Structure formats: structure tokens, C-alpha cells
């Protein structure tokens, strides 16, 4: 089954799909999350929103930084793109941006910033602690480098399988 998107909707639709943009605010190597106390939501959250139809994810990430953090950024970069089940048996494509803050996030009357101590992470929203750590620390998994090729003297060729160049190939009987 392929993923084809239907027309825009104003809320989650049963079996539907949406694109969400998440922001990882980081100040001096510490992840900032927000304790939210609003009538629509409570708990610990990362800044996020559903991308508008035809919207630009980078612009939405910048708007989230302005709205939630209320401080200038020194860098805004794409961290990851992930896929999750969403409400009503739907599907979410999560676009995650890493935001380096020039100063600690301020928050507002509904959102109070909480900075995780260096090296400590907890699951937030759909994200596991290991993902948050990878995005905050910039840890990159390196692939092992291939080793040197063995010397030619270590290669053994069976003469029955690969005859020497001066011998004509043996004829094989035809089977009908």
C-alpha cells in the first residue's frame, strides 16, 4: 500500500496522515523542554506543530523557536525525519530540527522551560531518550573502515574449478 495524502483537514482524521515539525532547543549542550500548563495540554513537551498544507518546515521550526523559546538562535538545522503512528490509526511524519539558543529559553505563562542536566535524557512525546541524546550531542555512528586486501599469495585457486590459463577448458557433456 502506498501513502497518498488526502485534502487538507482541520484536525486529525481517522486513517489520515500529517507532517509535524518538532524543535529541539539546546543551550550550552543542554536540552530544553517545556512544562506546559494549558487547558488543551499539560505535561512536558518539545515545541511542535502540524505543518500547514504546502508549508515550509524550516520556517515553521523558526516560528516555533520564536513562540516557545523567545530568544535568538545561533543555529537551526535539520536533525532527523521519523515516522510514527498517530491518533485515530493515522500516520505522522515527524521533521525534527535542532535549535542552538543564544541564551536560555524564556517560555511564557503557559510554558516553563526545563533544562535537562548534561548527559541526562527522558522520553518526550514520541521520541526515545536515545534519539534525543543523539540529536543533542551530535553523536555520529561511524562505520568500520574496510581492511587491507590480503596479499595475492594467500589466494588459493582450485585447478578443477579454475584451470590454468595454458590449459584448454574441459568439455562438459551436454544433457538433454
Word description of this protein:
By secondary structure, the protein is mostly beta strands. It has a domain at 17-135: Alpha-Beta Complex (Nucleoside Triphosphate Pyrophosphohydrolase). The protein contains 2 helices and 7 strands. It has helices at residues 57-69, 129-137, and strands at 17-27, 30-37, 42-45, 48-50, 73-86, 90-101, 111-115. Strands 1, 2, 3, 4, 5, 6 and 7 form a 7-stranded mixed β-sheet that branches. Strand 1 (17-27) and strand 2 (30-37) form a beta hairpin. The model has no long low-confidence stretch (mean pLDDT 82).
Pick out its properties.
176 residues, Nucleoside Triphosphate Pyrophosphohydrolase, 2 helices, mainly beta, seven-stranded mixed beta sheet, 7 strands, globular
Low-confidence region ranges: none
Please summarize the sheet with the most strands.
7 strands, mixed
Q: CATH homologous superfamily of the domain at 17-135?
A: Nucleoside Triphosphate Pyrophosphohydrolase
CATH architecture of the domain at 17-135: Alpha-Beta Complex
Oligomeric category: single chain
Indicate the overall shape: globular
Q: How much strand?
A: 25-35%
Instruction: Provide the gyration radius in Å.
Output: 27 Å
Number of strands: 7
Please report the number of helical segments: 2
The CATH topology assignment of the domain at 17-135 is Nucleoside Triphosphate Pyrophosphohydrolase
Amino acid at each position: 500500500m502506498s501513502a497518498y495524502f488526502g485534502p487538507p483537514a482541520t484536525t486529525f482524521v481517522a486513517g489520515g496522515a500529517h507532517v509535524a515539525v518538532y524543535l529541539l532547543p539546546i543551550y550550552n549542550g543542554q536540552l530544553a523542554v517545556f512544562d506546559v500548563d494549558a487547558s488543551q495540554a499539560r505535561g512536558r513537551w518539545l515545541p511542535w506543530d502540524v505543518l500547514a498544507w504546502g508549508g515550509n518546515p524550516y520556517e515553521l521550526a523558526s516560528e516555533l523557536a520564536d513562540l516557545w523559546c523567545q530568544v535568538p538562535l545561533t543555529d537551526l538545522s535539520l536533525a532527523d525525519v521519523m515516522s510514527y503512528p498517530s491518533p485515530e490509526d493515522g500516520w505522522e511524519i515527524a521533521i525534527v530540527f535542532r535549535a542552538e539558543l543564544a541564551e536560555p529559553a524564556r517560555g511564557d505563562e503557559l510554558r516553563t522551560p526545563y533544562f535537562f542536566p548534561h548527559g541526562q535524557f527522558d522520553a518526550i512525546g514520541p521520541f526515545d531518550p536515545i534519539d534525543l541524546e543523539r540529536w543533542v550531542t551530535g553523536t555520529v555512528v561511524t562505520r568500520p573502515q574496510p581492511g587491507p586486501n590480503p596479499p595475492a599469495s594467500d589466494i588459493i585457486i582450485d585447478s578443477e574449478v579454475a584451470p590454468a590459463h595454458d590449459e584448454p577448458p574441459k568439455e562438459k557433456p551436454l544433457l538433454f
